[in-house]
Prior knowledge:
There is one protein chain. By secondary structure, the protein is α/β, with parallel strands linked by helices. The protein has a single domain (about 1-120), classed as Rossmann fold (3-Layer(aba) Sandwich). It has 4 helices and 5 strands; from the N terminus they run βαβαβαββα. It has helices at about 15-25, 45-50, 65-75, 105-120, and strands at about 1-5, 30-35, 55-60, 80-85, 100-105. α1 (about 15-25) crosses α4 (about 105-120).
Amino acid sequence: MNIYVAHSNKFNYIKKLYEPIKSAKSLSIHNFFFPHDEINKLINTKEIIKSSDLIIADVSFPSIGLGIELGWADYLKIPILCIYEKGLEYSSSLKFITNNFVEYDSPRDLIEKLEKYLNN
């Protein structure tokens, strides 16, 4: 499965998102695309989203760019899983594009919940 990982730049996404997903052997059967893996490299995320089977969006922090990417995914009818850190609130308007929300409280908890979601 090709999975696009969307998020705001307003938190430490490398430590809290990228590293846990990359280090989880159970998730290595999937192809994850991390849009900010290569700093300063201009990429056409719209084209990458088009070829994705799933969007995992960390919606813990609001972001215009994240909203645009989720709008593209919704328009293209690509399933969206919204994840968010415990204690943080996400925009209620996200309920118009998905019913799939997962709260996590640690990187380990995030991986366990992603494993469960992806195995269903």
